[in-house]
């Protein structure tokens, strides 16, 4: 999930927001201030409903952020780097670089999120109960009660044992621990995710047909998302098992040809293109990668503009590059590949370019890994 804008860092992890959060934020604020609060607490001024609705929606998203930050912090403690946290349409995602090394780490990383949501819900619920005991009633009590309910609901929904939910990770940890087979565990969790997705779509459509309106469609939409994400996880698990134990250095093209960022496109086309065997060209400065230009991008420059355009102008910039180290597991690199360079990564040691990994390097490795897996299976 791509962040549309960054809002800062929490616990050292960059936090971003996708524009789709705005939709949910407005739906929640509107639902509370235009429907739920006026129904439960009539005869208040409109501004009071709006203020309570907006406040509750803001606090809800802070709670969601706390849930994701807890995943990120525990992942870091278990030796996994965290790319960032993004809030979007279906809540939050903490993007981890790589996977848990053992079932225990998986359990801790996945379990802490729902635990945090549960604690937040219980704390708000406790405050609400204290207010009732002190005979304080009104709109703010309503907001607290809603926050308590929604956070507890979030905790419960997230522990449903189905990937990609946290509960799916817990299920995977359990199956992994019981069988010692990470791939099988991932496939079981992904299949459970598929089943939950189908159930949610069925339930949502049934509710919609019975007149529940938007709530039913929303449930169906979540189910649809779960099915897609579960399918992706199953494919990743199978690819991951074919690639287990393979390092970046094993598949990369070492010491690729490079060019200077200042070279013009015309110069490159006239003097280098025909001798060049690869589909992307790293740009370096004193051995350090500063960009990557794909031949597709070079071809995209009109012939009459080539002399006036430098390679740097059509390249992926340094901050858009995916960097890897030679000793890194290929399976840890895969989730990071995306975006600007069409799935390529530059391999660096001490910031100096030592190789490049392209999608065809990876698919060759997958084919070899699958063959190797079949050979191993055949020996049993
Ligand atoms: Zn979570």
List keywords for this structure.
single chain; 380 residues; alpha+beta; CBS-domain; 3 domains; 4-stranded mixed sheet; 13 helices; binds zinc ion
Describe the protein's architecture and organization.
The chain is built from 13 helices and eleven strands. It is of the alpha+beta class and 380 residues long. The chain folds into three domains: 5-159, no CATH class; 178-243; 248-370, CBS-domain. The strands form three sheets. Strands 1-2-3-4 form a four-stranded mixed sheet. A four-stranded mixed sheet has the order 5-11-10-9. The chain has a three-stranded antiparallel sheet with strand order 6-7-8. A hairpin with a 2-residue loop joins strand 1 (5-10) and strand 2 (13-17). The chain binds zinc ion (ZN). The site of zinc ion has 5 residues, from helix 2.
């Amino acid at each position: 999930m791509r962040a549309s804008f960054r809002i800062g860092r929490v616990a050292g992890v960059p936090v971003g927001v996708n524009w789709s959060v705005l939709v949910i934020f407005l739906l929640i604020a509107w639902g509370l201030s235009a429907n739920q609060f006026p129904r439960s607490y009539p005869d208040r001024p409109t501004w009071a409903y709006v203020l309570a609705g907006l406040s509750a929606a803001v606090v809800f998203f802070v709670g969601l952020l706390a849930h994701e930050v807890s995943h990120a912090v525990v992942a870091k403690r278990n030796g996994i780097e965290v790319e960032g946290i993004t809030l979007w349409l279906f809540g939050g995602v903490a993007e981890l670089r790589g996977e848990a090394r053992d079932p225990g780490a998986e359990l801790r990383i996945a379990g802490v999120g729902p635990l945090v949501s549960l604690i937040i819900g219980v704390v708000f619920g406790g405050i609400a109960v204290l207010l009732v005991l002190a005979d304080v009633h009104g709109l703010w009590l309503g907001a607290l009660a809603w926050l308590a309910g929604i956070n507890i609901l979030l905790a419960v929904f997230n522990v449903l044992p189905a990937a990609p939910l946290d509960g799916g990770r817990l299920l995977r940890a359990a199956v992994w621990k019981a069988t010692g087979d990470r791939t099988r565990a991932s496939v079981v969790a992904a299949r459970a995710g598929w089943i939950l997705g189908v159930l949610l779509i069925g339930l949502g459509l049934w509710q919609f047909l019975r007149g529940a309106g938007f709530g039913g469609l929303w449930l169906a939409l979540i189910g649809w998302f779960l099915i897609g994400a579960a399918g992706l996880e199953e494919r990743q698990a199978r690819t991951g098992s074919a690639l287990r134990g393979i390092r970046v250095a094993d598949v990369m093209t070492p010491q690729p040809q490079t060019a200077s960022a200042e070279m013009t496109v015309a110069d490159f086309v006239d003097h280098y293109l025909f001798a060049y065997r690869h589909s992307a060209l790293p740009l370096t400065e004193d051995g350090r990668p500063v960009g990557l230009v794909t031949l597709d991008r070079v071809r995209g420059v009109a012939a009459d503009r080539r002399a006036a355009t430098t390679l740097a102008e059509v390249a992926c910039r340094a901050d858009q590059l995916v960097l890897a180290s030679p000793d890194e597991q290929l399976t840890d690199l895969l989730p990071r590949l995306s975006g600007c360079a069409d799935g390529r990564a530059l391999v660096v040691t001490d910031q100096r370019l030592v190789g490049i990994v392209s999608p065809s390097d990876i698919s060759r490795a997958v084919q070899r890994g699958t063959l190797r897996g079949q050979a191993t299976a055949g020996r049993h």
